[in-house]
Amino acid sequence: MIDRHLTPAIDAALSDYPAVALLGARQVGKTTLARQIGDARSAVYLDIERPSDRQKLTDPEAYLSLHSKSLVILDEVQHMPEVFPVLRSLIDEGRRAGQTAGRFLLLGSATGELLRQSGESLAGRVAYLELPPLQAPELGEKEQSTLWLRGGFPNSLLASSDAKSLDWRQNLISTYLERELPSYGSRLPAQTLRRLWTMLAHLQGGLFDVSQLAKGLLIDAKTVHRYLDMLGDLMLLRKLLPWHSNLGKRLVKSPKVYVRDSGLLHALLGLASHDALLAHPVVGNSWEGFVIETLLNAAPRDAQSGFYRSCNGAEIDLVVDSPDLGLMAIEVKKGPSAKPRRGFYSACEDLRPAHKFLVHSAADAQAFPVGDGVTAVGLRDLAQQLAAGR
Hints:
Oligomer: single chain
Number of helices: 17
Number of domains: 2
């Protein structure tokens, strides 16, 4: 078992809220973590996708009332929207009886759908937490390179070989294309969806150009937007928005797009080994996406983030701002001896951040200054600094 950093936050939320919604992509480890937490609380576990468990909820009010003294875990709960009004009623009834916390742990793999369903019925009664794939700070320094290649899905990361890891990820992609996306309303053929996802992989870290994607797929721009939103709801795609400040400068307005898990990115591109990855043109943008995903998952929940790029070439790969840590400008470089670009310094003159970092790929190197107030630092170290500011 790998200890997940989110465990204390889930325990704390269950102590404060009657319901906690744990969000995350499929196969990311939600069920394993929820069962681990549930075992310590003698919880009742129900998988909504299992017919026998779903049958128990034919009369959800009657069944859940039988377990009013226990934590009830409902897995893939977004597939049973009719249960949310019942949960609201039971939570309110429990509050009147003095049960104010720790009633339900809701697991879901579709952020938008679960937020909509629970928001309509459980407003003020539920806390939301997202479980990402395994992250660099949860593993040892020597495992960072493997994590980057294979991604953070446990079955992929812990596979006995790179080939078996790639095979698992390709099967997961096929499952999403042939089952998951159609279940959420996709009407495009699986082959077209695969082409869209693969095009996004080739555009990793690039500015979002919907017309280019629509032209390449022979579909309209609205359809592209809808499917990108769907991939975002399934926590597979991230849009990093541009950072805007009142500087009187012409700034880039298009977001950047990233396949969130580096392992899925490499599977979409057919990259089975480190040698293949290092020889591919996407290597720099892959490392950038890996770093950004790690840092944003570690950052405080109240942090604001984005990238900064002006029309005159000033650019910062990642900007993070939180009340406790201040404004941070982060440059991402693959090599441990790389230096920030001139555009990074120009952008820092525009934003005047409190902290300036260069994240390199050496897992075990100590932080060191590189000039003009910039500190070169390893990914795990900076992620731990961000997490300490939570």
